[in-house]
Structure formats: C-alpha cells, structure tokens
Amino acid sequence: MDAIYIPQLTKAPERTEEIQVQEFLPNLETLTPVRGLIRIQHHGNYLEVSGKAEAIITCTCNRCLQSYNHRLSVNTSEIIWLEELREEETDLPLEREVAVDDLVETLSPQGYFEPSVWLYEQMCLEIPQRQLCDTNCPGIQTTNSNCDRLSDSRWASLEALKNQLSG
After folding, report:
1. What beta strand segments (E) does 1-135 contain?
2. What pLDDT sits at residue 124?
3. Cα(106)–Cα(84) distance, rounded to whole angstroms?
4. Phi, psi at residue 41, to the nearest 5°?
5. Which of 4, 84, 149, 163 lies most in the core, judged by the most C-beta atoms within 10 Å?
C-alpha cells in the first residue's frame, strides 16, 4: 500500500479514498494475507479513517504451549487530527507528563498518511493478550512418576520433613 499525500486527498471524489487490501503486512506474521477495506475521508481539519480487515495468525497457548490458529478481525474507525507540529513538540525529552487531552493522533496537513502502518497497528491491537487454545485447556500434563525420577537430590531433606509431618 502506498502512502497517501494528504493534500491530494482533498481533490479525490467526495474527499474519500478507499483501499482494497489483500496482502501480507510487514512485521505481522499471518498465515493468510490481510483482506479487507480501508476508507480515508478528509474533513478539513481531520481525517476519518475506518477499516474492516481479517487474517489468520498462529498463536501459542499460554497453558499447554500448543500452537493453534486464531482469526484476527478488525472493524474500527479513528479520527486523526491534521495540525502542524509546534516547535516545542519536535524536541521532546525522553520522559514527560502527558495530559489526557494530549492523547490524540495528529498528522501534518501537508504530510502523508500510511495506510499499511495504520492497519498493522489496528491488527496488533486485536492480537489476544491471553492466548488459550481452549477455555477448558488443562495446561501441560505431567505424571508423578516423571517428577519422582527427575527430582533434585537437594530437595531430599524437604521431602523427608514433608513425609514426617504428614505421617
């Protein structure tokens, strides 16, 4: 996907650009290409970006460590404000206090909008934080006989005390 020059978007029909997506996104490992539609509409001082897309990724279960496939599905929209960066915002310290009102996405009105970056970010937000192959996944199954053979001899004193207290 090519970057969209924002001033050129004002000359598009209805100030809108629609991008049909069917490709693999860089840095996003998917089994299938990301398929969907991104719509960018210029409203003067902001862009309204909406998108629907889906792909299939391979996840690793946090309990049993088995791989499984998961369908990522995005159906979202976002407002991106168009304003020039103030000079004090270009040379920021590594740490600073940020007010809640400052947590908005902005682009230069003379800059570019990168639909592939935007879609990548939206897809990453949909990757489940808690990855489980099944809600009833029991986790890694172990047998006690394996544990007895693999036990560390340094724990023998503790095992003796445990047996003494239970007996």
Report:
1. 4-5, 16-23, 34-42, 46-60, 67-82, 106-107, 112-113
2. 95
3. 8
4. -125, 130
5. 4
Amino acid at site 127: I
Structure confidence at residue 90 (pLDDT) = 59
Element (H, E) at 162: helix 156-166
Length, in residues, of the chain: 167
Instruction: For the chain, list residues with pLDDT below 70.
Output: 85-92, 101-103, 143-151
Taken in order 114, 118, 121, 127, is the CA torsion positive or negative? negative
pTM of the model: 0.75
Q: Give the pLDDT confidence score for residue 104 in this predicted structure.
A: 77
Query: What are the residue ranges spanned by the domains of the chain?
Result: 4-92+99-166
C-alpha distances out from residue 166 to 67, 148, 153, 161, 162, Å:
40, 18, 20, 9, 6
Q: Going by C-beta distance under 8 Å and a sequence separation of 6 or more, which residues neighbour residue 55?
A: 28, 30, 31, 32, 33, 34, 35, 71, 72, 123
- Could you tell me the two tokens for 121? 């970010």
pLDDT at 1: 84
